[in-house]
Amino acid sequence: MAMEITQVLLNAQSVDGNVRKHAEESLKQFQEQNLPGFLLSLSGELASEEKPVDSRKLAGLILKNALDAKEQHRKFELVQRWLSLDPNVKNQIKTCLLQTLSSTAPDARSTASQVIAKVAGIELPQKQWPELIGSLLSNIHQVPAHVKQATLETLGYMCEEVSPDVVDQDQVNKILTAVVQGMNASEANNDVRLAATRALYNALGFAQANFSNDMERDYIMRVVCEATLSPEVKIRQAAFECLVSISSTYYEKLAPYIQDIFNITAKAVKEDEEPVALQAIEFWSSICDEEIDILEEYGGDFTGDSDIPCFYFIKQALPALVPMLLETLLKQEEDQDQDEGAWNIAMAGGTCLGLVARTVGDDIVPLVMPFIEENITKPDWRQREAATYAFGSILEGPSPDKLTPTVNVALNFMLSALTKDPNNHVKDTTAWTLGRIFEFLHGSTVETQIITHANCQQIITVLLQSMKDVPNVAEKACGALYFLAQGYEDVGSSSPLTPFFQEIVQSLLTVTHRDDAGESRLRTAAYETLNEVVRCSTDETAPMVLQLVPVIMMELHQTLEGQKLSSDEREKQNELQGLLCGCLQVIIQKLGSSEPTKYVFMQYADQIMSLFLRVFACRSATVHEEAMLAIGALAYATGPDFAKYMQEFYKYLEMGLQNFEEYQVCAVTVGVVGDICRALEDKILPYCDGIMTQLLKDLSSNQLHRSVKPPIFSCFGDIALAIGENFEKYLMYAMPMLQSAAELSAHTSGADDEMTEYTNLLRNGILEAYSGIFQGFKNSPKTQLLMPYAPHILQFLDSIYMEKDMDDVVMKTAIGVLGDLADTLGSNAGSLIQQSLSSKDFLNECLSSDDHLIKESAEWAKLAISRAISTTEVISLQVVANSCISTMGSGTFGFWSEEVGSDGFAETGEECGINQGVTNCDDMKVHKRILSVTLGGNGGSGMTWRKLLVSDAELDYDYPGPNPKHDPRKGKPGGNSGKNA
Amino acid sequence: MKKYISKKMAPHDLRRPFKRPTISDQQRRRELTLLRQNQSRRDAQNHARFLASSVLALHDQSQSPEPISEPPIVELELATQDDSKPETVQHGELDVLQASKLGGAEARKWFAKQLMLPEWMIDVPDRFNQDWYVFSRPAGKRCFVVSSNGTTVSRLRNGSILHYFPSALPNGARTKDNSGSALSYSILDCIFHESDQTYYVIDMVCWRGYTLYDCTAEFRFFWLNSKLAETGACDSPSHYHKYRFSLVPVYNCEETGLLTVYRGATPYVKDGLLFYNKHAHYQTGNTPLTLAWKDENCSQYVIDTDSNGQIPSQQQVVLELQDDGKLITSDDPPVVFGCLDSDFIVKSGLRSGNLLRFAVSDGGLSFVDGKLEKADIQYLGKSNRARAFADSYSKVIFQYMVRHSPLRFEDLLATVSSSTTEANEPSDVDMPG
């Protein structure tokens, strides 16, 4: 067997496809037939010094893949599988792994490091493998440097895999001591020192306690700063990476070191090799990020409180920092604008300059203006481009008052440079700068308008002219036009763009047809600008927007007439369909928002819908997100008539709801279900069984991205509101789901900001579901079906109130639910409501809220409650009234006593009595059972959910923002990797 | 072997977006869509919460067993949607918004039925000092004031329009700062007092789309007091606020309260006193849970006058003629005062539903066991066309008492001061039979 696996592993890397395929097949069989044996063989292979490096390495990688996967659900399965293996087998494997760290083959050692970290990631949280860290640390003192290096690398990977809270502080101290010692200048071996520096990068998250201790922090900082001066470039780079990470993780501890760090970074930016210089600039960008966040928090809060004080490092460093960054701008690369992946010191410096401007505002302007004035007219394109880029960079941050005088002068210069400058790079940056001017200094919120009647025409002429330039310049010109249009968003009925509207639209369409429109994402930019021009159009130009409908429809039609396409061509065609559907979506939403244009637009509805259906049909497997978004807009505009499309459309709707992998598609489809509910109202009923089944499956799936789950709950509310009491049959499924999610989201103790934010989204979804269900059942004879759920819902409201961490949106929805409950259940729930905390303290708090929407909902709730309660009283009141009337009857004129007698209240009042309460309890038990089955029963439904909530957190990089890696603490969303990036 | 990617401890990627907007247009489209969907969801919910409930509230109130004549089925703009919402435009189920679009006679008929009408106090109710409020009624025209969609309309008891004007009430004028949904409306029960051109608000029926029909008087008065002034409706008239609104001070029905409303000075001319049961809901039409009372000290018009403003020598009553010739009051159920024979009806050209004027002759009204047994009345002619209703039983009796043995203010006062010591025993014991 041992012989055999070596050969199979080598064959799996063969250049011959058949051999490879056969080998992979054998590996798969082996794994399926005998997993423990398979894993043992792999670890044996990896540990064996006699085996070829290639087979050892692959053995290690397969082993690693047997422990971890990207998809959450798969990862969970693999973890469970490892934990359930025979302990003896696991021990043997672990022994092999540790042994491999001493191998003389670097690849074998490195692979083993990674596998050990994966095993540690599974076992340490379970309190297993307690001896791991001890045995690694004992390696540190071994003589052979390569063992020491491999051990440090393992510690680094391990720190990346496991969370700091599963390692004792005592062990953390030992790890840090070993790592920092390895980094020390006294360490002669560069490989060891590099491994230690990289390990520290991952271990920084473990060092909270150590950074709070002055002596220990001083020591760590000294070692890191010394490492930035190492003769070895990789060590210097890794050390700067540590500084970048420290800048965000331990911002508030930096004050004593900031002067030294400035000196070190300034030197690196000036003299060091580019990879090092880039990290040095990144340090300051990262400090800017921190201070912008802190200052934003100050600004948004009247008390001026923030968890972390602002140390104004940037403001203090400004006089030295700005010249350093301006210097970098002159180090452009020739063709960086054509290269999507380019990132150089000039780009990093300019980006940092922009961040500095956002951090300090007005103060940056006098420091940058002399540089601009000196360079902007120089014959060397580098100087002109650098000056322009500097100008563009500081447009966000300083006040319009400070910038407007300069911009007024610069505008003409820029317009002329965009047409006349001989250098493409300069023109690219000039067009970009014009876009920034329009983005930040033009629009209804800016007091002094820089675009006037006098220069508007010239600006548009220049931009349309530039759209014929090389693709990268044309793309920036489209971008500038985008922001120009956006500035006229709230202009009212008459826009300064009206006279040019036709010409602008025509020019943009021409751009989309350019042969080179595929370069520099020019076509995308042109359609996006067209979208914005449509969004910001007014009644005056509505006829022209209407004319655009058949034009875009024809374009979309042509993409559907495709012959046989290569996969490359199909991908391009797909992208184009997305752009066209997106454009139609914007047009539909625009024209649908006013009655007269909607009426005219409706003549196209049938044709557009059939085009969208064809777009779906030609993508056999998945639904196109853009087409789905457009259909939502169409349903909203069409109203009840949308029913005629449902039969054909339904399967794609279902397909969208099943799309776990592309969760954006699923999310968009859930939103469209809501649109259709509101459009069709009870005519959606025939499709509800299918939709509800799918939504319930989505909720119980741990494959689906968690961000889709809150909207699904809201969607329950949309459905209930549309179909009213017909929602009855879904209650037994939906209510337990809601209840279990409510229990989980009631408490957030110990959660970080991101988790709290998600929890609030979840609460809002749950509450919107309750609102819709209550309002849907209102005035139905079946309202009593909801009685059993009332106690729990009130309890949920009480507990989120007591938790004191809900945001305004949740507050508004929550107090609305209280009103809906009272409104629908009326006197039956009167006493329950009166007992709840929500009906008193929470309600009062909302009534005195500054938020208009919260107050509005609270007033409504107060009324609904007072009605519910007073109806309860009226039962007794009617008795009083009757008797008071009878008293009068005893006097002179007593005819009333017979006439005002019976009324319906008493009977209704009795119905909510004890027998309801009993069914209530029984029902809930049944529901719980159903729920645990639905959720897949992994150690109780609650557990699965909680796991899901927590473990998804790290996957949440999907809403693209600027910098994905930036904050290792919080895992902020970032990294614009979307297709339109 | 792309499948097995070995990780390297490589430098971390630090590229930031360069010359790019921070948000893609696609993301913007998604966000705008979400915004639209949230807005639609909010609208749908507000609609369910506010409008639907008042439609029903109004409907519930008017479910009297077939009154005088069925209001005709009204054709509205909404009628075009009949296939989708067949039940929205059934007669009698209109909400205020729909009703405000009605013209002429239909609107008058609809609004005429929306006011809560007090019965006349012919005996002091039990628990008078505990369960009742009192205030002095301003002299003037009772009307419904509806503010919605940028205008304010006041309609008299018979449904005809008194004023059409801008006001500071919610959505009462076309100003830009209207907070809240344009659909939301407010309804006030008012008396328009000519001499100071002021609407005195005596009750609140709907506020910003929230219906208060099924709230207790206690709550309605509380809400009225806390909400009205907030809007600026009580301010002096201005361009967007043509008439001033004013609150009427309301007291508990105790000795001091009664004395204050009876003797105290008011900015308006008094026309009797109104008594509201604290626990009663706003109920359209006649209700014994709101009572009116007056004497010469607090009203100029104690005894009804004729169309020339003269007090007729004999009490006059207006009754409604029915199919079978019976003459009935406006009460629900009605009280029969007598019967006209069919020859007379034909000869005089009268039809079922006509409101007819009678004089109470010397025989007067006679009662047996508290029930009207006999009424000696004499036909005078058809009533004024502006009349929408026959007299109520309590009004006839109150007027009769005023002329013969009035219920005096001292009697009211006496009940209040005595009843503090009196136990509130169940009154069945006293019932005669």
TrEMBL record, chain A:
Alphabetic keyword roster: Cytoplasm, Protein transport, Repeat, Transport
Pfam families: HEAT_EZ, IBN_N, TPR_IMB1
Entry superkingdom: Eukaryota
PROSITE patterns in the record: IMPORTIN_B_NT (PS50166)
InterPro entries per the UniProt record, alphabetical: ARM-like, ARM-type_fold, IMB1_TNPO1-like_TPR, Importin-beta_N, Importin_beta
The keyword Membrane belongs to this UniProt entry's keyword annotation: no
UniProt-annotated location(s): Cytoplasm
Gene3D superfamilies attached to this UniProt entry: Leucine-rich Repeat Variant
Family membership noted in the UniProt record: Belongs to the importin beta family. Importin beta-1 subfamily.
Full protein name: Importin-beta, N-terminal domain
Source organism: Dillenia turbinata
Automatic annotation (TrEMBL), chain B:
Gene Ontology cellular-component annotations: cytoplasm; nucleus
Keyword DNA damage applies: no
GO terms (BP aspect): snRNA import into nucleus
Keywords: Cytoplasm, Nucleus, RNA-binding, Transport
Gene3D superfamilies: DNA ligase/mRNA capping enzyme
Compartment(s) of residence: Cytoplasm; Nucleus
Name of the protein this chain belongs to: Snurportin-1
